[in-house]
Structure formats: structure tokens, C-alpha cells
């Protein structure tokens, strides 16, 4: 079986993996925005995550895997969102690692883990864009995000497949 190929680049302690250099560069820019806006959140992201893995699938699904500390996101999540939103999403997803360490990352998920992660995300967005972005996150998350995730039956299993390939060294990683 031929190995799947993805590009990668280190960003501090993090490894960013993606189908093209374009998505990787956007994540690197989002990380720089975090560092510029809130150094504590930047170092939190560095310690809470090991890998940001952008899949080659379209769609708005993403998922954080513990204990692996890997955030998987479809390429549309990266390509169709602005830098402040991506930066806040990195903070949101990294916060789930903290919840896991505190024993809160258990099924069923839903509001018990999402609402605290959303609060952290909102606080960061307010530092960049003020109250307008806070309202946007509330409406986007309630109206669009959950419905898109609920309709996506392929991405979650694909993320697990990519995790398996990664763990078994069946992904060809090309330095970006």
C-alpha cells in the first residue's frame, strides 16, 4: 500500500501537518497571532497540543484526540476561516486537553465540555476584535457548527484512520 503524503513544519513544540503548504502557513500565522495577542495562551497551546493535523477533506469538521494531543481539522476549517477565528479555535481545542487532565473529557460530551472551551475562545476573540466577535461566535456555534458536524459522517472516521496511519508510520511526511 502506498503511503499517504502530507507536508509538515515545526512551530515551537508543535508539529503542523497538512495536505499543502498553504494550510500549514495559515496555521503558523494563526499561532503567531496567538503569540502576539496573548503569550500565555500561546504557551498553553504549545503544551496542550503536539500536532495540528489538517486533513485533505473538505468540510467544517474538526476533532481533538486525547491522550495523543492531536487536533484534526478538515482543510475547509482552515481555508474558509479568518486568522482570528483560527487562532481562537486552536485555543478552544487545546483547552480540551486541560479538561481531559481534570477528568472532564468524558462521554457524552456536548455542553459540559464545549461551554467552558467556548468561554476561553470568546475571551481570546475579545482581545482581538471586541464584543462583535463574541456575538459572532455565539451565533455561529449555535446555528451552523453543530448542524454541520452532525451531518458529517465521514470526517470522524477519516480522522481516526489518519491517526492510525500516523501512529503506524504509514504517512510520508515531507518537510514544508
Give an overview of the whole structure.
With 176 residues, this protein is α/β, with parallel strands linked by helices. The chain has one domain (4-175). The protein contains seven helices and six strands. It has helices at 21-37, 39-48, 75-79, 83-101, 111-129, 131-151, 155-167; strands spanning 4-11, 14-18, 51-54, 62-65, 70-73, 171-175. A six-stranded mixed sheet has the order 4-5-3-2-1-6, with helices on both faces. A hairpin with a 4-residue loop joins β4 (62-65) and β5. α1 (21-37) packs across α4 (83-101). The protein is globular. The relative contact order is 0.18.
Approximate helicity band: 55-70%
- The strand line-up of the biggest sheet is 4-5-3-2-1-6
Q: Report the uncertain regions.
A: none
Encode the helix/strand succession as letters: EEHHEEEHHHHHE
* Count of beta strands: 6
Structural class: alpha/beta
* Alpha carbon gyration radius: 15 Å
Task: Supply database-style keywords.
176 residues; alpha/beta; 6 strands
Q: In terms of topology, how is this protein built?
A:
Elements: E1 4-11, E2 14-18, H1 21-37, H2 39-48, E3 51-54, E4 62-65, E5 70-73, H3 75-79, H4 83-101, H5 111-129, H6 131-151, H7 155-167, E6 171-175
Parallel strand pairs: 1-6, 2-3, 3-5
Antiparallel strand pairs: 1-2, 4-5
Helix pairs in contact: 1-2, 1-4, 2-4, 4-5, 5-6
Amino acid at each position: 500500500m502506498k503511503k499517504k503524503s502530507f507536508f509538515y513544519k515545526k512551530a515551537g513544540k508543535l508539529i503542523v501537518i497538512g495536505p499543502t503548504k498553504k494550510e500549514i502557513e495559515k496555521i503558523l500565522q494563526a499561532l503567531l497571532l496567538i503569540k502576539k495577542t496573548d503569550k500565555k495562551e500561546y504557551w498553553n497551546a504549545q503544551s496542550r497540543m503536539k500536532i495540528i493535523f489538517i486533513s485533505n477533506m473538505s468540510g467544517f469538521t474538526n476533532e481533538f484526540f486525547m491522550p495523543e494531543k492531536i487536533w484534526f481539522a478538515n482543510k475547509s476549517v482552515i481555508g474558509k476561516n479568518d486568522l482570528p477565528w483560527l487562532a481562537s479555535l486552536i485555543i478552544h481545542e487545546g483547552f480540551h486537553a486541560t479538561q481531559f487532565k481534570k477528568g472532564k473529557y468524558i462521554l457524552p460530551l456536548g455542553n459540559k465540555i464545549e461551554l467552558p472551551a467556548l468561554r476561553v475562545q470568546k475571551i481570546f476573540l475579545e482581545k482581538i476584535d471586541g464584543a462583535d466577535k463574541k456575538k459572532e461566535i455565539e451565533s455561529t456555534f449555535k446555528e451552523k457548527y453543530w448542524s454541520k458536524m452532525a451531518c458529517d459522517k465521514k470526517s470522524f472516521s477519516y480522522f481516526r484512520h489518519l491517526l492510525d496511519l500516523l501512529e503506524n508510520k504509514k504517512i510520508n511526511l515531507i518537510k514544508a
